[in-house]
Amino acid sequence: MPHRSVRNRVGQFGGWMPQNRRVLRSWIARKLVQAGDPIANSTNWHSVIQDFRRLIEEVPEIYKGFHEMFTQIPPEYENDPTGKPQVKDYMSMLNLFDVIISEAPEWHYDPENPMANDLVGFPINAVLDWPMGTDAGYAMFISPTVNAQFKKMFDVWSTYLTSYASTAVLSDAENGWFSPSALGQLPNFVETYICDPDDPSGHYGFTSWDHFFTRLFRPGQREIDAELVDNNAVVHSACESAVYRIAYNAKARDQFWLKGQPYSIIHMLNNDPYAPQFVGGTVFQAFLSATKYHRWHSPVNGVVVKTVLVPGTYYAESPTESFDDPDGGDQHDPKDEGADPAGPNLSQAFITSMAARCLIFIRAKDPRIGLMCFIAVGMSEVSTCEMKVQEGDAVSKGQETGMFHFGGSTHCLLFRPETNIQIDDQYVPKDDTDSPEVHVKAPIAWVGDKPYS
């Protein structure tokens, strides 16, 4: 039966999902045991999961799609190393969803490799890992009706993640976010972020998972150099991120679903009236890692001329990759240590035209920059984009403009073709596997002569 799959999942790019496939299979197996029998439990599911079941069962094309997304998975990819079936049908899927939306993500502790980052930061993405790669799954995950139901489910999950109960995973226990293993992946956490390590609760002063996820830098961290604060010719990084791609002469409309995923400006900007001004311009894209800072900051001094929230997809990924392990081995051989440990995810550009996102158009003070656009793109899970600015607001470079709530995320800075933007060489990827790290508020580009060394 025909199928498609994405080899490099969004989650593996940025530490959101384990690179070792065995870890992911083991996590799914434990969750299946925790969830229990889907038929027996279904009457006790949360109402939003009950609604999801009704949607699947009452709409013929969705019922067909949610059956076929499981039957189209090739047999060799269906079982874990012990031969036990993994997620096989939509009832098992919904049963797992019911468990997941009442939990916050734990840190994954592996006693055999205690300093490894094997975080399952996208638990729903993990459940949908194989269905996302099928033709039927692709069709379902671009459905506005299905995505609207995911949004309802995420709203319920968000209520939990903003509650005090979600601090259960904020502890120094083995699977806690303040365990030695976790803090090994969060270097200088106490010195870097506003927190209280002496908090008697053990939660470091955080009142919810969301509070922890959207944590703030301490004063003095990531500040803009004084000599650049009033220099309107300099563009600064909007996010703590790693560069994915820099593209020039982006087309108005392009075949973003094909291999390489070229940028498609009109679709990225959701057919906005400002979109034609960016055709032929420059795109700077960078992604945010799971353990990093998730707030956005203005890249320039200027004025916000427009903000737009764009509803979109959560689990639609590029259809151009395959199940094959890039090193030629069996990606799901129980002896295989894991697939593509460093490969970039080619869906990064694809989702800029598909995923839930927000647009912030800013008219920079320097007329040589002029109108530019910041795009925040949510990827998987809750993926909420919260804007803190509105039309007419004056913004200063480094000023907070919004944040991502729980979920993967990438962002773009768009410049018009007449903006002769010069990107700092240290942030230009050398090849497809190079992802230069860039601190939020760091100078990354300029117009005119380079104003800093």
Automatic annotation (TrEMBL):
Disordered as annotated region, ranges: 318-344
GO terms (BP aspect): phosphatidylethanolamine biosynthetic process
Superkingdom in the source lineage:
Eukaryota
Q: What are the GO cellular component annotations?
A: mitochondrion
**Entry GO MF terms:** phosphatidylserine decarboxylase activity
InterPro entries assigned to the protein according to its UniProt record, in alphabetical order = PS_Dcarbxylase, PsiD-like
Return the Pfam families for the record: PS_Dcarbxylase, PSDC
Keywords of this protein's UniProt record, alphabetized? Decarboxylase, Lyase
Q: Specify residue ranges for compositional bias: Basic and acidic residues.
A: 329-338
In this protein, which residues make up the domain named L-tryptophan decarboxylase PsiD-like?
46-185
Lyase listed as a keyword: yes
UniProt KW Ligase keyword:
no
For this entry, the protein name equals L-tryptophan decarboxylase PsiD-like domain-containing protein
Provide the taxonomic classification: Eukaryota, Fungi, Dikarya, Basidiomycota, Agaricomycotina
